[in-house]
Amino acid sequence: MSEVRVAGVGLTPFGNTPERTGRDLFAEASAAAFDDGDVPRTDVEGVFYGNFMGELAEHQGHQGPLMAEAAGVHAPATRYEAACASSGAAVREAVKRIRTGENDVLLVGGAERMTNLGTAGATEALAIAADDLWEVRSGMTFPGAYALMAQAYFREFGGDHEDLAHIAVKNHENALPNEKAQYQRAITVEDVIEAPTVSTPLGLYDSCPISDGASTVVLVSDEYARDHGLDAPVAITGTGQGGDRMALQDREYLARSPAARIAGEEAYADAGCSPEDVDVAEVHDCFTIAEVLAIEALDLEPVGEGITAARDGRTIADGDRPINLSGGLKAKGHPVGATGASQIVELTQLLRGDHVNSEFVSDATVGVAHNAGGTVASALVHVLEVVE
Amino acid sequence: MSDPDGIADAGFDDWLDALAEGEAYFLECADGHGSLPPRRVCPTCGETSLEERPLPETGTLETVTITHVPTPSFENDAPFALAVADFGPVRLTGQVVGMDLEDVEPGLTVRPDVGVSETTGERLLVFRSQ
Fold first, then answer.
1. Residues of B in contact with A151 (CB under 8 A)
2. All structural domains of chain B with their residue ranges
3. What residue segments make up the domains of chain A, in order of their start?
4. Is the ipTM of this complex over 0.90?
5. Domain A4-118+209-386 - what CATH class?
6. Taking a C-beta distance cutoff of 8 angstroms, is the pair A166, A153 a contact?
7. Does the distance separating the beta carbons of B80 and A120 come in below 8 Å?
8. B62 close to A (CB below 8 A)
9. Tens-digit pLDDT profile for residues A194-232
10. For residue A305, which of A220, A346, B7, B72 sits 20 to 30 Å off, Cα-Cα?
11. What region holds the Thiolase C-terminal domain (chain A) (predicted)?
């Protein structure tokens, strides 16, 4: 089985660029990845692309070939859709393909254009990741769904909005030097508490922004990297995927995400490592409570204790195990189809030592990416390691 | 019937009709797992023999949020209380209506009913304090 190397990575800035088309965003990110990886476009054998709301935002289906064309690649292309975990799913399928030996070079990534829909339109578009009949028609929004999970968490394990606020403060702090981040602005716990309420207990600053952006990685086989003398020290050594019932109401637990636990256990076993080995993680903090559920599901914090991790400093940049050094979805932004692959981009740079926040994890060799779809009915986890 | 052309969603709209008539039900498989329509297979165990059983008349609110920023379909309804209520064999998600928002809290006993969105006039699942 071939090892899968990350040869090149690319991101657009994440932010508010309503006029930019998805194809233009993906073209920019892929050009950056080809430049970074020194891999010729002509060697690419397939494009694995994640996107969620293209039909609603751009009246554009069948985006795979469109994005291959935008990237200047002549190869078969398929779009993967798993709500906000779309490009995490694309990464997993590409990893598996290279491992089989069928392909040596794949372009993987995602793009999302959202801000052209406006806040109300984007809220409606995101809601289609929930069960239309049994959730959305009752008025569920995504902030509403995560708010229900937060309230259930408080009830089961304790904690309050102030604990959550520390997560937002931490992730904004991490994003300060990240030029790709949507928000390079420090906030305080008071800012979070006093921000307008979206869905109790979650306010505006507990929520990730609506974002436009794209991300890409060029994945290659170990053999290709060696034969072409590539400097690609980071490998994706573990992949895992978990699923759950679609509607929150049908889950056994309202304050846990078993799909992410399944995905994490599979990814750790695949990589031959354990949670104790993890030096740094990028997790899917679409809302502050989501970071709590993620680090507990990944066994980076005991169940019921993740709520205090940011407040007590364990997950801050200077802490034992920094979480979301990129700024996370919260501050970096969340162009949903691009998010999963963007986590691979940020982690690769953190582990290579060329990320703006690499200084906080200078000895790191193992990183984990956690990408969630819906209220975690889909979960993708990847382990990245420095293999030299 | 939220489709623009007014075509019903079989199973779901039938269930709302039944609820409106005081005959709400859930589906039970031979192993006793509860689920909601439309459904041909028990999502828990794969059993294909599903029987309609009366939904318990009341449920208990398990988690509650007050939504201030809604989707456009509920623009004029916000703020509203959205809750997941436990009815034993199944849980349901609905808006808690007919009481002050600040009084809506977990543990409250509710009965399900069919309400109407103030924004669209569409039917929706609501809970009323028992």
1. 63-65, 106
2. 1-55, 56-130
3. 4-118+209-386
4. yes
5. alpha beta
6. no
7. no
8. yes
9. 999 999 999 999 999 999 999 999 999 999 999 999 999
10. A346
11. 240-385
Identify the residue whose tokens are 């304090």: B129
Contact criterion met (CB < 8 Å) for B93 and A249: yes
Give the neighbor-by-neighbor strand order of the sheet with B50-54: B34-35, B25-29, B50-54
Average predicted confidence (pLDDT) for chain B: 96
How far apart (Å, rounded) are the C-alpha atoms in residues A107 and A339? 15
CA dist., res. B96 & res. B126, Å (int): 6
Rounded distance between C-alpha atoms, residue A329 and residue A332, angstroms = 5
Strand partners, A84: A82
Nearest alpha carbon to residue A13 among A2, A1, A24:
A24
Q: 């233009």: which residue's tokens?
A: A24
- Tokens representing A88 are 């995490």
What lies within 8 Å, CB to CB, of A45 at 6+ separation is A75, A103, A104, A105, A106
B25 near A CB under 8 A? no
Report residue B1's pLDDT band, with 50, 70 and 90 as the boundaries. very low
Quick check: A150 pLDDT over 80?
yes
**Is B56-130 assigned to CATH 2.60.40?**
no
Helices (H), chain A: 22-37, 54-58, 63-71, 86-99, 118-127, 142-157, 161-175, 189-194, 222-227, 258-271, 288-297, 328-332, 336-352
Interface check B2 vs A, CB under 8 A: yes
Give B91-110 as a 3 state SS string. EEEEEEECCCHHHCCCCCEE
* Chain A residues within an 8 Å CB radius of B122: 137
Q: How far apart (Å, rounded) are the C-alpha atoms in residues A107 and A90? A: 10
DSSP conformational letter for B79:
S
Distance CA(A323)–CA(A317), nearest Å, equals 7
Q: Is the backbone peptide bond immediately before A201 cis, with ω within 30 degrees of 0? A: yes
